[in-house]
């Protein structure tokens, strides 16, 4: 935490933060449509095909 405080003091408030998503992130909308079981139910996992 001391390092985080020092970096923010040197480079400006909220330059470095803990790993928490921001509300304005574009990916937030995509993850909202994801199934709650996306890692446990095989038929809900995305399929990637290379042709």
TrEMBL record:
Protein known as? DUF4113 domain-containing protein
Q: Supply the Pfam families for this chain.
A: DUF4113
**Record InterPro entries:** DUF4113
Organism name: Vreelandella zhuhanensis
Q: Which residues form the DUF4113 domain?
A: 1-48
